[in-house]
Specification:
This protein is mostly helical and 173 residues long. 64% of the residues lie in helices and 2% in strands.
Length: 173
């Protein structure tokens, strides 16, 4: 789990600290953080001193009674399993978005590689002699250019399908 994920988990956990039920975070021996105990001796981290930048401030009007405030806090109490699922969903969305960005970079690279190969073949074709051997060579280069174009198109279509599938999954989350 990277540092950003840990920060997100800590912020979300601290946001629910004011509610009657809060999620717990455990630090395992391998240095990873998780919501479930790592082993039988695992104890949850004390996150009481972690401030929240996510939770909205509770600017209650002064005329509210303690009972009204308690009722509002109970209504906003979050089940730890729900919070865990919310964190997992957030992390999955982040992973999908990262995969989409990487695939888009691969797509641009595939276009660039294809264009570079075609340009190299065109440059090579300029050296052909104006005779039968040169004409045969140019025809061979043209066929190779067609193959490079088809290969590039196939690669880009495959990447586009992967991106489309990831975007569909992202919409469903």
């Amino acid at each position: 789990m990277d540092g950003k994920s840990l920060i997100v988990i800590l912020i979300m956990v601290s946001a629910s600290a004011s509610a009657s039920a809060s999620a717990e975070v455990y630090k395992c021996a391998d240095g990873k953080y998780q919501a479930d105990p790592c082993d039988d001796q695992s104890e949850p981290l004390d996150l009481s001193n972690v401030g929240s930048v996510v939770a909205p401030s509770r600017g209650y009007p002064e005329n509210l009674t303690n009972e009204t405030i308690d009722a509002r806090q109970q209504d906003s109490a979050v089940n730890p399993r729900d919070k865990k699922a919310e964190i997992a969903q957030y992390l999955r969305k982040q992973k999908i978005e990262r995969e989409i960005r990487n695939l888009e970079k691969e797509r641009k690279k595939a276009f660039k590689d294809r264009d570079d190969k075609i340009e190299q073949l065109r440059t090579t074709g300029k050296r052909a002699n104006n005779n039968l051997a040169g004409a045969t060579w140019q025809q061979s280069l043209a066929q190779e250019m067609t193959a490079v174009m088809q290969q590039g198109s196939t690669e880009v279509e495959s990447i586009d399908r992967q991106i489309s599938a990831l975007r569909s999954e992202l919409k469903q989350l």
